[in-house]
# Entry
Amino acid sequence: MTRNYLITGGAGFIGSNYAHRLIQRGEHVTIFDNLSRGGAPRNMAWLKDQFGEDAFRLIVGDVRSADQLAEAAKEADVIIHLAGQVAVTTSVTNPRDDFEANALGTFNALEAARLSNRDPIFLYSSTNKVYGGMDDVKLKEDDTRWLYAELENGCSETQPLDFHSPYGVSKGSGDQYVRDYARIYGLRSVVFRQSCIYGPRQFGVEDQGWLAWMMIAAVTGRKITIYGDGKQVRDVLYVDDLLNAYDAAIEKIDVAKGQVYNMGGGKRNVLAIWAEFGPILERLIGKPIEVERSDWRPGDQRVYYVNYTKAKNELGWEPKVDLEEGIDLLFDWVKANQDQF
# Structure
């Protein structure tokens, strides 16, 4: 059955990859984006080059406009809400913009879904930052990484919420609104608390998309700054695996509606951001990399990786692309497109 998909933030990294997948399989796709991110026009040009000018509909709009969103959502069977402000540091500098893009923008998207009278499926891209610094969780340290001392399988959805930074609060507000619209209004909504997603079409910057950013910086000769000791651990998830989870939730929406899923690479796809990734990156580019050092940034978790057991049990989902393969795929894309950065 062909569906009408609305992707807010569809010109971004995740959105353009999902649009590509949906168009390829014959779905009707509308992209709603203000095209403010540097990579957005390039991603739109890529989709048009791949499929032609008429393969999808582009609405240049802003999620802060309730009227624009309501109009865009009128015919949507599925709404993928990815739009928003994406960086903790930017949220600290300009908390009002962050609130309006994330908290208000998500509320507007939910209202557009509720008022459309089409009972759309609604997927929301949340973040691990809703768990804050996880200061109550015991850690241990080894030569190259920090580790959970007791959460052997990673952070589950039962970890207490602790919104930290304006970004954490704004995304967390959206997270809870999406959950509650399922309870109060019966909206078929699902929350994905996403860890580090990476892959092609990711025009990473220092504040967001760290793995892609470091790779781009190394290839193009830009400065890399390591905050903290570089042994912070993150789990990474290749973008195709995330999109598989979106598809699984849509197909199993009777199970997934109203649910929250931690979404990341899990225990077998963890990486210390410099103590372990640095040597990999040096091997890829074939020379040593000099980095600058700076203090820890506020709210920077020493360890974060997910326990995705819930998604595995309820959606039949788990990552397919392992760390080594995914890094090679991203590096190939960065090398082939370095003139775009």
The mean pLDDT is 96.
